[in-house]
Design goal:
single chain; 7 helices
Length: 198
């Protein structure tokens, strides 16, 4: 048996480490300083991630904590639209939900209505009605939108009643919170799984 001849490979070049390679001893201190700079830019050795805990009342996007009588957080904008359309607050809410509901007005909403002055006096008069439940706010300032969003994040037992686009956009990011709004002489509800067909 004869041995097979090895053929010579043409144009085979040996791989050579470049002069700036970090594996060379003379370049190692430079590489360590660059790695240190990158770490300091990222914010240290490890990244802290904060993931909000999902409410135990949520079954996927379905909120099991929402039961009759419904707690409805009313916004300033919602009250003014109700006055413009000449709707009765409680009766129209009950027609929309086909169940008992408790309109809740926070102290921030009351403060906002009082600031708006004489133009919103009828809305303020409706808000002062003793049939509605009051909620005291324990935070500084009286910005109603932030107050409502914060309260809904903490406790997912409310329906948010608003016609404010920005507030709606912020509430839609929170899973399991329905939104009620005024539209053409009636209230409509979105994101409530048990909502009756229109």
């Amino acid at each position: 048996m004869s041995r097979a001849k090895k053929t010579r490979k043409f144009a085979a070049v040996k791989r050579i480490i470049g002069q700036r390679d970090a594996r060379l001893k003379k370049n190692q201190p430079k590489a360590q300083t660059e790695a240190g700079k990158r770490k300091s830019q990222r914010g240290g050795d490890h990244v802290i991630r904060e993931i909000p805990q999902v409410s135990s009342s949520l079954f996927y996007q379905y909120n099991t904590a929402l039961v009759s009588p419904y707690n409805v957080l009313v916004d300033t904008n919602f009250l003014s639209h109700t006055v413009q359309r000449k709707l009765e607050l409680l009766k129209t809410m009950m027609d929309c939900l086909h169940a008992n509901c408790i309109p809740i007005i926070t102290s921030c909403v009351m403060a906002e209505l009082e600031k708006l002055g004489a133009h919103y006096r009828i809305a303020l008069q409706i808000a002062r009605d003793e049939r509605w439940e009051r909620l005291k706010c324990d935070h500084k300032g009286d910005y109603a939108d932030a107050c409502i969003v914060d309260r809904v994040r903490k406790h997912k037992i409310y329906i948010v009643a608003t016609n404010d686009r920005d507030l709606k956009r912020r509430v839609r990011k929170i899973p399991g919170v329905p939104i009620m709004s005024v539209a053409r002489g009636k209230y409509i509800i979105e994101r409530l799984p048990d909502a009756p067909e229109r």
